[in-house]
Amino acid sequence: MGKSLRVAYGEALVKLGEKNDKVVVLDADLAHATQTCMFKEKFPDRHFNMGIAEANMMCAAAGFAHTGYIPFASTFALFGAGRAYEQIRNSIAYTNCNVKFGFSHSGLSVGEDGGSHQSIEDIALMREMPHMTIFVPCDPAETEKAVMAAAEINGPVYIRVARPVCDDITTADTPFIPGKANVMREGTDVCIISCGLMISRALAAADLLEKEGISAAVVNMHTIKPIDSEIILKMNQTCKAIVTAEEHSVIGGLGSAVAEVLAGHDGAKFARIGIQDKFGKSGKPDQLFEAYGLTAENIVAKSKELLK
Fold it and tell me: Is 54 a catalytic residue?
């Protein structure tokens, strides 16, 4: 078993802070939940608890960036992308300000916190802002790479961080190039394009399909923006069907981004697996993934349906 992505995020911030004294971390009274408490312990003078005032935190982060620092602003995805949307848009994205967002507790996997706290529209909200880069890492190793890559990019970057403990899927040697998807598996019948916590389910679906004689490619679209159009169009040519799988609404997230690339191109049949225009509800993460169809079995069923 690996570790939680939020723990990997906290550890990566400490490593980054050791290498770069311009890195500062801001949190909205959730340092133990987002795991920025690790950075606070190591660099108390570079960690700022802004209190339950997310909008203020974003404006302060912009101020840090304008004076040459590299701020990482952390809170829950719902409070960051949702409550502080206007400040992110006008004070940060609008001015192409060098602020990084590490928003944890994204998606259905927040579980028992229920629909009010399950951020299933955060990618959509962040994706439509000009200048924004969006990373959705799938495991601890990729989370660390996303943090390091974010610090190298000049401009706003959103790293979507999840709460559950998850398996190691990639290794330290797996490449992480912003805007360049990783093909985790080659295939010719169906291509499963996925990101974040759905990658393990996409790989499991490919195994199940293989047992039925169906060749499935799996693409890890760790960068949602800028999207890797090249790999999407290539898979559109080499496979008969494309299925996207995400722990986010099918409106405005990975599925929408892939559909936008495919629009106007003939080729593969296409389907989106994700949250189908509904809010979340309370339950254990695995139960919720099951209830909303975010399973390997549903990816298999959808793939077979398209290939008929």
Answer: yes
Residue of 11, 41, 54, 86 marked catalytic: 54
Alpha-carbon distance values, 89 to 62, 94, 216, 253 (Å): 11, 6, 39, 18
Distance CA 217, CA 100 (A): 32
Task: Please state, in angstroms and as integers, the Cα–Cα distance from residue 68 to each residue in 23, 64, 71, 108, 192, following that order.
Answer: 10, 7, 9, 36, 41
How far is 69 from 92, CA to CA, in rounded Å? Answer: 14
Residue of 134, 124, 101 whose CA lies nearest to 225: 134
C-alpha neighbours within 13 Å on the C-beta side of residue 291: 14
Residue carrying structure tokens 């660099």: 43
1: confidence class by pLDDT, cuts 50, 70, 90: low
What number is the average pLDDT over the span 234-246? 97
Which tens digit of pLDDT belongs to each residue from 9-52?
999 999 999 999 999 999 999 999 999 999 999 999 999 999 99
CB 74 within 8 A of CB 34: yes
DSSP letters, 22-66, are TEEEEESS-HHHHTTHHHHHH-GGGEEE--S-HHHHHHHHHHHHH
> What are the CA-CA distances from residue 49 to residues 11, 36, 61, 124, 142 (Å)?
18, 10, 12, 27, 26
Give the per-residue pLDDT at 247. Answer: 97
Instruction: Say whether 252 sits in a helix, a strand or coil.
Output: coil
What confidence tens digit (pLDDT) does each residue in 194-238 have? 999 999 999 999 999 999 999 999 999 999 999 999 999 999 999
Contacts (Cβ under 8 Å, ≥6 apart) of 2:
139, 140, 165, 166, 167, 168
**Position 246 pLDDT exceeds 70:** yes
